[in-house]
């Protein structure tokens, strides 16, 4: 049976999770600003924006994977916490059976 978390552990985990989420928000903001600048530069300076799509798609994939790691898969995910809780409950039910 897992031991309850101390107040310090809860604070450390909460700070780590908040930091990961803020890191993703900053990544998304920089992504939008830089790609907007690339779009404007390619459209205004050279009259074509075909080349500005490539960094957008590449970096967009990176941003997506970063988001998956922060929101769905990593230690910061509610999904992981729910899965751990379900496993705990299953093990407790098995342990209670005679």
Automatic annotation (TrEMBL):
Keywords on record: Membrane, Transmembrane, Transmembrane helix
InterPro entries given in the database record: 2TM_dom (IPR025698)
Transmembrane segment boundaries: 22-41, 56-74
Domain 2TM per the UniProt entry, residue ranges: 14-87
Pfam families: 2TM
Superkingdom per UniProt: Bacteria
UniProt protein name: 2TM domain-containing protein
Native species: Rhodoferax aquaticus
């Amino acid at each position: 049976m897992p031991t309850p978390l101390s107040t310090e552990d809860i604070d450390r985990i909460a700070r780590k999770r908040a930091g990961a989420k803020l890191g993703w928000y900053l990544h998304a903001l920089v992504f939008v600003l830089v790609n907007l600048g690339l779009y404007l530069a390619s459209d205004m300076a050279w009259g074509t924006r075909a080349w500005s799509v490539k960094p957008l798609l590449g970096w967009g994939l990176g941003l997506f994977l970063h988001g998956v790691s922060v929101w769905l898969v990593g230690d910061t995910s509610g999904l992981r916490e729910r899965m751990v809780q379900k496993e705990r409950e299953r093990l407790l039910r098995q342990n209670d059976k005679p």
